[in-house]
């Protein structure tokens, strides 16, 4: 059981950001290099199915990073990012099927749509704070499948039938499998999004967001347009989730309503909490749980993974308030001591 | 005309259920300042419990009341075990707690009772109510039982010492302690009552939506819409909001062309967004939003 | 004979910040004692420490019975009525309900009804407003309500935190007269924290001056009132 007196400081999002307190710089660099090397060379040693799993893992990591960016920078929490993920997936699938646009180019379009949707939803929803906002976003997640099935959209979305997408081939005659190519594409997008997230947190905009997260009243007194920033960051986060959704459509080659229930939104939230709220590298750890726990748990009994995730959340709440970040900090302290 | 009255009445029937869920949400919101995202799942698991009792041969009404009692105890236990230790923790921790509760209840229901849809008995059957073609007996029962429940709650809060103490603890916990109210117990009581109300709502709606682990997601959405419409902090507003939302949903589904059953959830969402955009404090509530 | 209220070596903490440093005080039954001092000196903290509303070490006893370490609710049951800063009025509840809340720890139904009527006799304005929301009352009326609510407990000891705050001078005058009555007629001991030292020293028999979480000086109220040095350095008038 945790020490209640300390929790408030330890789980405070402000403790989770900036991303690297306590982690020795050299250790940080070494880990990053090793991680990148592993990520780059892994497909060479893995079977295609496992490469596909790793692609999914990176896709979830991007979606979770979207949440981390939102919560880490503005303190807002979304339980509705499955909606933006769905927007991205459908945008990519529809564009590929209807226009024959290059699949790489569907990503920015998906981001744009996600941004607009996030901005429009965020504008009224962000009048709520804390758990009430989470509830409003949760409402969005619950309604998403029904919206997709609406008559108006059915012609585009394929309704319950879903949409099939052709698998992109490795271009330029590269001597790698299609799965590996998709993996590298996802990895490249993931690195870009990660760098974008880091620079956003360190930019003027990021600082403004931090200010408004820590003290909205003071921030508005200093001339930060709080409502606008909150909505913008919500839009940016939605755009990133949308990119992840688009990648998932391309990778899985199939888009269907059932993939975008509120369970997805909750999974993303769990991934964020388990990885360490607001800690961008934690997205990778959280995504690993999201991808691999159901594989194992549901093999044992259908529905077990929900209980496992719930248990993981409780573990984080009561034992490891900063999730994987806490373990990373501890590890780096061990190495730093040498 | 008859269609209008009939649809309004069946809207009221659903609305009564939304009102119960909205009230349960508002009760927790007032006592601990957080919205219980797992409220629907608590109601769902209670309903499964009732179903299990009936499978074991317990008649409807004993099962009904035993379930209410067990749901009450479960609510108290959830407060004691999970949320009291989090009392001073930040919002995110609370949210993680609610989500954990949500996932565990949803998952446990699936593990124990599996994910297939189960029928749930009607307490009074579905024959036309008093021979009227406007409303079925079950719809009348949904309205009647919820309204009796809500009226009892009103009496409890308005005219009993404990009710007064609960209201005081919810508005100003510190002052409440200074007049000797054990605020922790009041919070537990609030959880227990919210859970029990949810159980009633679950058992009344289960014959209509059928019993399965995800049965309450849509209802929770409507309950939340009702609570937002009522201003989030007003119990009376939540009840009025629930009835309004129920009627609105049914009338739109019936009279707006090209809108069928599938519009239900998007409609609730649109309602939430519209209220937040146009009247963020709801129709009846005090200031709930943070203006910055 | 041991004192009615006795606090010894109180240390109190807001998080890591220590607000009281070994503060000790005592008061006799049936008296009015006042705590004076600048803003942030630790007056409010002392009252909160007595009611165990802040992390405190040291011992506090009431009538020779140790109350430190007991829960706030239990201390209230023992007859300590605390009117906090800002009066602690339940603004969304009615005047009548506020009074009933004051008697929350009592179980004598008849006695409670009688006392409510007594309060209405003593504060006629409250009777007029009995079913009104307490938040609609004026500042002075709310302060009367707060005193009445505290009396509903039939307390042995009343803790008042800046009762004159934000009130017009005439209203303050009236309030302090009422406090004098409560002390004399109902035999309630009163520990009052005041910014308005002049006024507090008039009705009190004993005074403590607090500075930086310690007792800077104490003595009979009259003596303190006449001590120019104390007045200038601590009380600022």
From TrEMBL, chain A:
Topology in membrane: Multi-pass membrane protein
GO MF term set: branched-chain amino acid transmembrane transporter activity
Transmembrane spans: 27-45, 51-70, 77-96, 102-121, 128-148, 181-201, 232-256, 262-292, 304-324
Chain coiled-coil ranges: none
Gene Ontology CC annotations of this record: plasma membrane
Cell location: Cell membrane
Assigned keywords, A-Z: Cell membrane, Membrane, Transmembrane, Transmembrane helix
InterPro entries: ABC_transp_permease (IPR001851), LivM-like (IPR043428)
The protein, known as: Putative branched-chain amino acid transport system permease protein
TrEMBL record, chain B:
Topology term for the membrane: Multi-pass membrane protein
Main localization of the protein described in the UniProt heading: membrane
Listed name of the protein: ABC transporter permease protein
Gene Ontology terms: cellular component: plasma membrane
Family membership noted in the UniProt record: Belongs to the binding-protein-dependent transport system permease family. LivHM subfamily.
Annotated TM spans: 12-29, 60-83, 95-115, 135-157, 187-209, 265-284
PANTHER family: ABC TRANSPORTER PERMEASE PROTEIN (PTHR11795:SF451), BRANCHED-CHAIN AMINO ACID TRANSPORT SYSTEM PERMEASE PROTEIN LIVH (PTHR11795)
Pfam families given in the database record: BPD_transp_2
Keyword annotations from UniProtKB, A to Z: Amino-acid transport, Cell membrane, Membrane, Transmembrane, Transmembrane helix, Transport
InterPro entries for this protein: ABC_transp_permease, BCAA_transport_permease
CDD domains: TM_PBP1_LivH_like (cd06582)
GO biological process per UniProt: amino acid transport
Location of this chain's protein in the cell: Cell membrane
GO terms, molecular function: transmembrane transporter activity
TrEMBL record, chain C:
Domain ABC transporter: 5-237
InterPro entries to which the protein is assigned, alphabetical: AAA+_ATPase, ABC_transporter-like_ATP-bd, ABC_transporter-like_CS, BCAA_Transport_ATP-bd_LivF, P-loop_NTPase
One GO process term, biological-process aspect: L-amino acid transport
SMART domains: AAA
Alphabetical keyword list: Amino-acid transport, ATP-binding, Nucleotide-binding, Transport
Keyword Ribonucleoprotein: no
GO molecular function ontology, one term from the record: ATP hydrolysis activity
Family annotation (Pfam families): ABC_tran
PROSITE patterns: ABC_TRANSPORTER_1, ABC_TRANSPORTER_2
Family: Belongs to the ABC transporter superfamily.
Protein known as: Putative branched-chain amino acid transport system ATP-binding protein
Organism: Pseudooceanicola batsensis (strain ATCC BAA-863 / DSM 15984 / KCTC 12145 / HTCC2597) (Oceanicola batsensis)
């Amino acid at each position: 059981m945790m020490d209640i007196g300390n929790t408030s400081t330890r789980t405070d999002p402000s403790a989770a950001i900036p991303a690297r307190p306590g982690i020795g710089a050299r250790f940080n660099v070494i880990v990053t290099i090793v991680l990148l090397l592993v990520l780059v060379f892994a497909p060479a040693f893995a079977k295609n199915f496992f490469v596909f799993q790793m692609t999914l893992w990176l896709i979830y990591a991007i979606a979770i990073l979207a949440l981390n960016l939102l919560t880490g920078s503005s303190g807002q929490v979304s339980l509705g990012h499955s909606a933006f993920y769905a927007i991205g997936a459908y945008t990519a699938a529809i564009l590929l099927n209807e226009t024959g646009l290059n699949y790489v180019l569907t990503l920015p379009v998906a981001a744009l749509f996600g941004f607009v949707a996030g901005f429009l939803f965020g504008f009224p929803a962000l009048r709520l704070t804390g758990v009430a906002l989470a509830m409003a976003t949760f409402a969005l997640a619950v309604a998403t499948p029904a919206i997709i099935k609406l008559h108006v959209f059915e012609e585009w979305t394929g309704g319950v039938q879903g949409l099939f997408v052709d698998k992109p081939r490795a271009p330029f005659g590269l001597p790698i499998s299609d799965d590996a190519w998709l993996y590298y594409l996802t990895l490249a997008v993931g690195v870009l999004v990660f760098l974008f997230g880091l620079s956003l947190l360190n930019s003027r905009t990021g600082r403004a967001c931090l200010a408004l997260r820590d003290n909205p009243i003071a921030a508005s007194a200093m001339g930060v347009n709080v409502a606008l920033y909150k909505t913008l960051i919500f839009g940016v986060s939605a755009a990133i989730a949308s990119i992840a959704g688009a990648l998932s459509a391309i990778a899985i080659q199939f888009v269907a309503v059932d993939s975008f229930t509120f369970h997805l939104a909750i999974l993303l939230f769990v991934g964020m909490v388990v990885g360490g709220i607001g800690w961008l590298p934690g997205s990778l750890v959280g995504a690993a749980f999201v991808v691999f726990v159901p594989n194992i748990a549901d093999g044992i009994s259908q529905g077990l993974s929900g209980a496992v995730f719930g248990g993981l959340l409780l573990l984080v709440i009561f034992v490891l308030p900063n999730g994987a970040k806490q373990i990373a900090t501890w590890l780096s302290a061990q190495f730093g001591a040498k | 005309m008859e269609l209008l009255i009939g649809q309004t009445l069946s809207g009221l029937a659903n609305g009564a259920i939304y009102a119960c869920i909205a009230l349960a949400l508002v009760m927790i919101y007032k006592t601990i300042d957080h919205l219980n995202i797992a409220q629907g799942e608590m109601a769902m698991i209670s309903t499964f419990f009732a179903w299990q009792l009936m499978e074991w041969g317990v008649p409807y009404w004993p099962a009904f009341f035993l379930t209410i009692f067990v749901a009450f105890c479960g609510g108290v236990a959830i407060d004691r075990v999970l949320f009291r230790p989090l009392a001073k923790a930040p919002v995110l921790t609370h949210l993680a707690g609610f989500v954990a509760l949500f996932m565990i209840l949803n998952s446990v229901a699936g593990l124990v009772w599996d994910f297939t849809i189960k029928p749930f008995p009607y307490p009074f059957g579905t024959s036309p109510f008093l021979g009227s073609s406007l409303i079925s007996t079950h719809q009348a029962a949904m309205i009647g039982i919820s309204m009796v429940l809500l009226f009892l709650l009103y009496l409890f809060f308005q005219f009993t010492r404990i009710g007064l103490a609960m209201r005081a603890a919810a508005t100003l916990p510190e002052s409440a302690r200074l007049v000797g109210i054990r605020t922790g117990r009041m919070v537990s009581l609030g959880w227990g009552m919210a859970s029990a109300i949810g159980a009633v709502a679950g058992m009344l709606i289960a014959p209509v939506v059928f019993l399965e682990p995800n049965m309450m997601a849509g209802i929770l959405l409507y309950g939340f819409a009702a609570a937002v419409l009522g201003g989030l902090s007003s119990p009376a507003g939540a009840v009025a909001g629930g009835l309004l939302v129920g009627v609105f949903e049914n009338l739109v589904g019936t009279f707006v062309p090209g809108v069928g059953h599938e519009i239900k959830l998007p409609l609730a969402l649109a309602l939430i967004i519209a209220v937040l955009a146009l009247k963020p404090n709801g129709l009846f509530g005090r200031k709930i939003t943070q203006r910055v | 004979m041991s004192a009615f209220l006795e606090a010894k070596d109180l240390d109190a903490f807001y998080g890591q910040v220590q607000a009281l440093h070994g503060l000790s005080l005592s008061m006799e039954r049936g008296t009015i004692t006042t705590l004076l001092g600048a803003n942030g000196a630790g007056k409010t903290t002392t009252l909160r420490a007595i009611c165990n509303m802040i992390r405190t070490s040291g011992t506090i006893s009431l009538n020779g019975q140790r109350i430190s370490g007991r829960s706030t609710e239990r201390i209230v049951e023992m007859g300590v009525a605390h009117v906090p800063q800002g009066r602690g009025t339940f603004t969304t509840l009615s005047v009548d309900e506020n009074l009933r809340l004051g008697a929350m720890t009592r179980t004598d139904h008849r006695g409670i009804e009688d006392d409510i009527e007594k309060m209405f006799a003593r504060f006629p304005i409250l009777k007029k407003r009995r079913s009104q929301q307490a938040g609609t009352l004026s500042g002075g009326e709310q302060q009367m309500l707060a005193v009445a609510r505290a009396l509903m407990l039939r307390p042995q000891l009343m803790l008042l935190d800046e009762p004159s705050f934000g009130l017009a001078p005439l209203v303050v005058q009236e309030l302090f007269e009422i406090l004098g009555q409560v002390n004399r007629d109902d035999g309630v001991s009163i520990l009052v924290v005041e910014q308005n030292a002049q006024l507090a020293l008039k009705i009190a028999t004993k005074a403590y001056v607090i500075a930086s979480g310690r007792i800077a000086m104490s003595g009979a109220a009259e003596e303190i009132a006449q001590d120019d040095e104390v007045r200038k350095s601590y009380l600022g008038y």
